[in-house]
Amino acid sequence: MSIIRRPEQIFDIRLLERNKNKGLYDSKEYKKWLKELPDMKEEVRYVTAVDLFDEARQEMEESSEQAKPKTTEAESEAIE
Prior knowledge:
Elements: H1 7-10, H2 16-21, H3 27-36, H4 49-67, H5 73-79
């Protein structure tokens, strides 16, 4: 049974060598596909380890705030 494969599957970097060895593409097809990819340089976001840490800490703080039990007005008055 033949499986129709999309270029994204054939040229998946993790499978590139295996797919070439299977004869699913040749170097010419791969170079053509690379040239047709859109230029995404405007979408690039450079991050540092500090940026990633800060984002993770912020997400943890937000999720812990959401997990706090909500107190009713009566409960708040009883605590005071």
